[in-house]
UniProtKB/TrEMBL annotation:
<keyword id="KW-0315">Glutamine amidotransferase</keyword>
<comment type="similarity">
    <text>In the C-terminal section; belongs to the purine/pyrimidine phosphoribosyltransferase family.</text>
</comment>
<feature type="binding site">
    <location>
        <position position="318"/>
    </location>
    <ligand>
        <name>Mg(2+)</name>
    </ligand>
</feature>
<keyword id="KW-0808">Transferase</keyword>
<dbReference type="GO" id="GO:0000287">
    <property type="term" value="F:magnesium ion binding"/>
</dbReference>
<dbReference type="InterPro" id="IPR035584">
    <property type="entry name" value="PurF_N"/>
</dbReference>
<comment type="pathway">
    <text>Purine metabolism; IMP biosynthesis via de novo pathway; N(1)-(5-phospho-D-ribosyl)glycinamide from 5-phospho-alpha-D-ribose 1-diphosphate: step 1/2.</text>
</comment>
<keyword id="KW-0479">Metal-binding</keyword>
<dbReference type="InterPro" id="IPR005854">
    <property type="entry name" value="PurF"/>
</dbReference>
<dbReference type="GO" id="GO:0004044">
    <property type="term" value="F:amidophosphoribosyltransferase activity"/>
</dbReference>
<feature type="active site" description="Nucleophile">
    <location>
        <position position="36"/>
    </location>
</feature>
<feature type="binding site">
    <location>
        <position position="381"/>
    </location>
    <ligand>
        <name>Mg(2+)</name>
    </ligand>
</feature>
<keyword id="KW-0658">Purine biosynthesis</keyword>
<keyword id="KW-0328">Glycosyltransferase</keyword>
<dbReference type="InterPro" id="IPR017932">
    <property type="entry name" value="GATase_2_dom"/>
</dbReference>
<protein>
    <recommendedName>
        <fullName>Amidophosphoribosyltransferase</fullName>
        <ecNumber>2.4.2.14</ecNumber>
    </recommendedName>
</protein>
<comment type="function">
    <text>Catalyzes the formation of phosphoribosylamine from phosphoribosylpyrophosphate (PRPP) and glutamine.</text>
</comment>
Length: 505
C-alpha cells in the first residue's frame, strides 16, 4: 500500500477519482447540475437545528458538501463537512457544537473550486470589526479577475471558490459601518448571487441586481428566515413573507429589520432554469408554482410536437411534472415506464468497462409491463450531452417498446452558463454541435423535439419572448447573457496557483 503522502500515491488516487467523475458525467450526461442552497435564521433558540432542517429541504440544490455557522453572543461556531446534510447534521452532538440564536447554512454543488473541505461554505473570517460568515448561491463572472487583483495587493486566499473574494472585499473596505462595507463589496462584483451572511450582530441577505438567483424571506414564530426556496420554509413550518427583491439587501438585528437598495433598479431577469430544473416542484418561485409551471411546459410541448402514441413516459424524476402536463393536454395515458433507483450513487459505481455498459440500468430500469409492444413518448426536462438519453432509448427498445419518441420540456441548450450552472462549453453541448436530425439519430429515437423558446415563455404566462426585453435569464438557449462576462474576456490564463491548491488538498 502506498503512503498517502507519496506523490505517486496521490497521482493514482487522483486518476481513480477522475475516472469516477468521468463515469458519473457519462451517466448524468443529460442532467443539469444543481447550484447551491442557502439558509439563515435570526433570534431562534434552536437556530442550528432549524438551519439543518432547512438545509435538508434544500439538499437537491447541492449534494457535495454542507456547512453551518452559528453565533452564541460571544463566539462563532462552525461545522463544515463533505457529503449530504444528514451525514453530519442529523447527529445531536454536532448540533450541540453550534450554540446560539442565529445561524447560517449552505449546501454546495461546486461550480467554481474543487470539492474540498476548504471550499465548503459558509466561509468565515475575522475582520477588524468582528467575525463574518458568508454563504453564496450563484457565480461571479468577474470573480477570477477580482481574485488576481486581491492577490496582487497582498491578499492570501485559502480556498478556490469565488465566494472568498466577497470576504476580502468586505475586509479591505475602509468604510466604518459594516453595511457600507458590504455594499461597497457588492458594487465591485458582477454575475449572479444570493448571499446569506452573519456578523456578531446581524443576519444579512443580498440578491443580485437582476435577481438571477432566488432568495426568499420567511418567518418562524417571529424569527426572520432567509433561504433559497419556499420548500425550506414548509419543512420547518415557517410562513412565507416575500421574495427578497433584485438588488435588495436585508438586515436583521436586535433593532429589527432593515432594507437597503443601493443599486439602480433594472428589469428583473430571474434564471429560467429554476423553473425547468433547479427548484423543487413544491416550491413557489417568483410567485409561480414550480409544479404548475412544469406541467404547463409539458402541455405546451404537446401543443407543439405531439405524435400518435400509446403512453406518455417521464424520465424520472426530472421529467415527471412535464409528462403529467403532456398527458393531461394530449389525453394520452401517463405511465411510469421507467423506475428510478434512488439509492445508487457514485460510491457504488466502479470505473470498469463492464459496469460502464450497465451504468444507466443501475439508476434506471424499464417497467416492461407498461411499455412492451407500445408506442411511447419519453419526456425529460432538458438535454445536455445526450449520453443518458441514448441509453434510456435503447433500454426502452430492449424492453419491447414499438416506437420511442423523445420530447424535451425546454429549448435546445446552445450556450454555456457562467452564473452557477455546471454546463460544458459549447463543444460538449449536443444541440450546439448537431442538427435536430443528427441528435435524433445519435439518441436513437423515432422522433425528437424540443419546446420552443416562445412556447417556454407562453407556458410562463407571457405572450412570447421579447428579444428587446426578455423576462428571464435564458442565455443557455439564446446566448443573450444578462451581465458582463469579465473573466471570459480576459486573455490572461487562469493562474496555476488555483489548480495547485486544489491538488494539494
Amino acid at each position: 500500500m502506498q503512503n498517502p503522502s507519496d506523490p505517486a500515491g496521490q497521482l493514482d488516487l487522483s486518476l481513480d477519482l477522475n475516472l469516477g467523475i468521468e463515469l458519473q458525467d457519462d451517466l448524468e450526461g443529460d442532467t443539469l447540475r444543481e447550484e447551491c442552497g442557502v439558509f439563515g435564521i435570526f433570534g431562534h433558540p434552536e437556530a442550528a437545528a432549524i438551519t439543518a432542517l432547512g438545509l435538508h429541504a434544500l439538499q437537491h440544490r447541492g449534494q457535495e458538501a454542507a456547512g453551518i455557522v452559528s453565533f452564541d453572543g460571544s463566539r462563532f461556531h462552525s461545522e463544515r463537512r463533505l457529503g449530504l446534510v444528514g451525514d453530519t447534521f442529523s447527529r445531536r452532538e454536532v448540533i450541540e457544537r453550534l450554540p446560539g440564536i442565529v445561524a447560517v447554512g449552505h449546501v454546495r454543488y461546486s461550480t467554481t473550486g474543487a470539492t474540498i473541505l476548504r471550499n465548503v461554505q459558509p466561509l468565515f473570517a475575522e475582520l477588524n470589526a468582528g467575525g463574518f460568515a458568508v454563504g453564496h448561491n450563484g457565480n461571479l463572472t468577474n470573480g477570477l479577475t477580482l481574485r488576481r487583483e486581491l492577490v496582487k495587493n497582498g491578499a492570501m486566499m485559502q480556498s478556490t471558490t469565488d465566494t472568498e473574494v466577497i470576504l476580502h472585499l468586505v475586509a479591505q473596505s475602509k468604510r466604518s459601518r459594516f453595511i457600507d462595507r458590504f455594499i461597497e463589496a457588492l458594487r465591485a462584483i458582477e454575475g449572479a448571487y444570493s448571499l446569506v451572511s452573519l456578523t456578531n450582530k446581524k443576519l444579512v441577505g443580498a440578491r443580485d441586481p437582476l435577481g438571477i438567483r432566488p432568495l426568499v424571506l420567511g418567518d418562524l414564530d417571529g424569527c426572520p428566515i432567509l433561504t433559497s426556496e419556499t420548500c425550506a420554509l414548509d419543512m420547518i413550518g415557517a410562513k412565507y413573507v416575500r421574495d427578497v427583491e433584485p438588488g435588495e439587501i436585508v438586515v436583521f438585528d436586535e433593532e429589527g429589520a432593515h432594507s437597503h437598495k443601493p443599486f439602480p433598479p433594472k428589469p428583473p431577469r430571474p434564471c429560467i432554469f429554476e423553473y425547468i430544473y433547479f427548484s423543487r416542484p413544491d416550491s413557489i418561485v417568483g410567485g409561480r408554482s414550480v409544479y404548475e409551471v412544469r406541467k404547463a411546459f409539458g402541455a405546451q410541448l404537446a401543443r407543439e410536437s405531439h405524435v400518435e402514441v400509446d403512453v406518455v413516459v417521464p424520465v424520472p424524476d426530472s421529467g415527471v411534472p412535464a409528462a403529467v402536463g403532456y398527458s393531461q393536454y394530449s389525453g394520452v395515458p401517463f405511465e411510469l415506464g421507467i423506475i428510478r433507483n434512488h439509492y445508487v450513487g457514485r460510491t457504488f459505481i466502479q470505473p470498469t468497462q463492464s459496469v460502464r455498459e450497465l451504468g444507466v440500468r443501475m439508476k434506471h430500469s424499464a417497467n416492461r409491463a407498461a411499455i412492451e409492444g407500445k408506442r411511447i413518448i419519453l419526456i425529460d426536462d432538458s438535454l445536455v450531452r445526450g449520453t443518458t438519453s441514448k441509453k434510456i432509448v435503447r433500454m426502452m427498445r430492449d424492453a419491447g417498446a414499438r416506437e420511442v419518441h423523445f420530447r424535451l420540456a425546454s429549448p435546445p441548450i446552445l450556450y454555456p452558463d457562467y452564473y452557477g450552472i455546471d454546463l460544458p462549453d459549447r463543444g460538449g453541448l449536443l444541440a450546439a454541435t448537431h442538427t435536430l436530425e443528427e441528435m435524433r439519430d445519435i439518441i436513437g429515437a423515432d422522433s425528437l423535439a424540443f419546446l420552443s423558446i416562445d412556447g417556454l415563455y407562453r407556458a410562463m404566462g407571457e405572450p412570447g419572448r421579447d428579444p428587446a426585453n426578455p423576462k428571464f435569464s435564458d442565455h443557455c438557449f439564446t446566448g443573450a447573457y444578462p451581465t458582463h462576462l469579465t473573466d471570459q474576456t480576459q486573455v490572461e490564463p487562469q493562474p496555476r496557483q488555483l489548480s495547485l491548491l486544489a491538488e494539494a488538498s
